[in-house]
Amino acid sequence: MKRNLYLNVQEKETALSRFLEAFSHIQPGRERISVIHSLGRITAEAVYARYSSPSYNSCAMDGIAVISAHTKGASESHPLRLIYEKDYLDVDTGDMIMPPYDAVIMAEDLIETEDGEGYTIIAPTHPFAHVRAIGEDIVAKEMILPTGHRIRAIDISVLISAGITEIEVIKKPVVGIIPTGDEMIEYTEPLEDGKIIETNSWMFENLVTENDGIGHRYPILPDDLELIRQKLTEAVSECDMVIINAGSSAGRDDYTIHAIQELGEVYTHGVAIKPGKPVILSKIQNKPVIGLPGYPVSSYLTFTEFVLPVMNMYCRTGGFVRQQKQVTAKLSKTLMSGLKYEEYVRVKLGIVENELVASPLERGAGASMSLVRADGFCVIPQDKEGILAHENIQVKLVKDMEQIRKTLVLIGSHDLILDVINDLMMEEGRDTCLSSTHVGSMAGLIALQKKEAHMAPSHLLDEKDGSYNTAITREMFPNEKMVIIKGVRRRQGFIVKKGNPLNIQSIHDIMHGVRYINRQRGAGTRVLFDYLLKKEGISKKDISGYEYEAATHMSVAVAVQKDNADVGMGIYSCAKALDLDFIEVGFEEYDFVTYEKYLELPAVREFIHVLKGEAFKKRLDMLGGYGCEECGQICFI
């Protein structure tokens, strides 16, 4: 047969762009599978928890369960004796804590009485000390995984804990792989002179597997035009796309191009890259068919350059980190540790001002969601009592560093909309994602000052004029050009049980023994609550539970739902999510503070684009309690 001459060899980007445009109709398929078989799969939609975890108030330590009110007055000068079944019960880690018992004292802090029939304590305890409250780790109806997330082993554990048994995932494309060549033999055959063990197809099959596809390898074909034509027809009918290896060059026995031309349309034969020039980009029966050269290096290079982009159209993702890498990062806050253990701390990573910053996540042994959120681990050696803020640390990665580089880092106030924004940024294959750490508005602004975040979600009230965020931004950043990206107006108020059994109507009704759950220091919600107390002349001491803190609005809501508290201040959307009642205090402004120069960052531009989008507004309507009239507007400070 006449040699195949390369006509109109194309630049790589031109050839690829033209080829992908021909298959713009390809959309990721979806399928529902069992959670226990979902390792490595990609979520097709956001996943929400059905159950809280733990689902009951549980003992966090071995010791005794006590009625905290019965321990008041205990001190070293006035030891207090506790009587079995009147003041305490013996408990082990994981046991259920039932009313009237509401706290646990560790075994190490107990002094056994001389008669052996009780214990003496020398310090009082407080409600929920050493108790894992309902929903401490996972709260029913909160988002566990966003769209486009690669499911890991720890994710499966969390999904099962949250009551998820089946999950909607992206369907893996089936990629047909046809090896050709008279000189090729299978690896199971004895090697003879003039024969070559065929290996490329096995490399392709595993590359397909690594990149979320299913490789379907066909037997080796001899250099025979009719056999190649028949096998191509069969493979196209059975698979989503087809790779045919070897026979794409200019040899007299290279029949691939002729078979493809007879069956379909050739877009490119020959690309201006070395090695890898003899690439065929074509279409048969409206499916991609790619001819790759036979030399192993060329075949590998052209697979990554031409096959993967097409697979990504089916999968909406590329490969993943196959080896654990280690990077150097600046620690955002001090980590203390004991000398007993080498401690592994889960961290979120982000690049701010060209510096990799590590923000520690929850350190509790039961905080499995922190593993889902973590980008890596830093290790505190056994001979160190901690690591100071701003020190450089080594982080072992569990996520792809390339994705971390595209991460927008938010530290500050919590709201359910952060999960929604992240989900929308991940949806449709966008190039950025959002990492949010919930520490409260003030702590977030401090992190922004220290260049440890790209922006700080905030809702800090100025008592003088009733405005939000502007005054504190001017005060904390007097010599910087700052902006406030307007977020949402949200309904803030008191979350109470369904039916409001205690008839709570105002802040005055929270006094006199009503169990309150507060937010952490520096949280905008706590600032608002303190403002209301001051305005009404109410002392913090009159609020039972003022020191009982929760890190998020959803944690407040679940505490009320599960009777760990009677009332807490939070946002309407969390009350609605858990079917609780809500007594409105008013609307507040939840915004995003950042540096003016950060407006040029691609991730920030994408963030603003999502805020202004119709999809975000629809999701807000579903959550309830939000106004979005100013979403995405920029206010220069």
TrEMBL record:
Alphabetized InterPro entries for the sequence: MoaB/Mog-like_dom_sf (IPR036425), MoaB/Mog_dom (IPR001453), MoeA-like (IPR038987), MoeA_C_domain_IV (IPR005111), MoeA_C_domain_IV_sf (IPR036688), MoeA_linker/N (IPR005110), MoeA_linker/N_sf (IPR036135), PBP_domain (IPR024370)
The protein's Enzyme Commission number: 2.10.1.1
This protein's UniProt keywords: Magnesium, Metal-binding, Molybdenum, Molybdenum cofactor biosynthesis, Transferase
Record Gene3D superfamilies: MoaB/Mog-like domain (3.40.980.10), MoeA, C-terminal, domain IV (2.40.340.10), Molybdopterin biosynthesis moea protein, domain 2 (3.90.105.10), Molybdopterin biosynthesis moea protein, domain 3 (2.170.190.11)
Pathway(s) annotated for this protein in UniProt: Cofactor biosynthesis; molybdopterin biosynthesis
SUPFAM superfamilies, per database record: MoeA C-terminal domain-like (SSF63867), MoeA N-terminal region -like (SSF63882), Molybdenum cofactor biosynthesis proteins (SSF53218), Periplasmic binding protein-like II (SSF53850)
Catalytic activity field: adenylyl-molybdopterin + molybdate = Mo-molybdopterin + AMP + H(+)
Recorded GO MF terms: metal ion binding; molybdopterin molybdotransferase activity
Top-level taxon of the source organism: Bacteria
A GO CC term attached to the entry: cytosol
Chain ranges of the MoaB/Mog domain: 176-313
GO biological process entries: Mo-molybdopterin cofactor biosynthetic process
Cofactors required: Mg(2+)
Catalytic EC class: transferase
Function: Catalyzes the insertion of molybdate into adenylated molybdopterin with the concomitant release of AMP.
Family: Belongs to the MoeA family.
The protein's name: Molybdopterin molybdenumtransferase
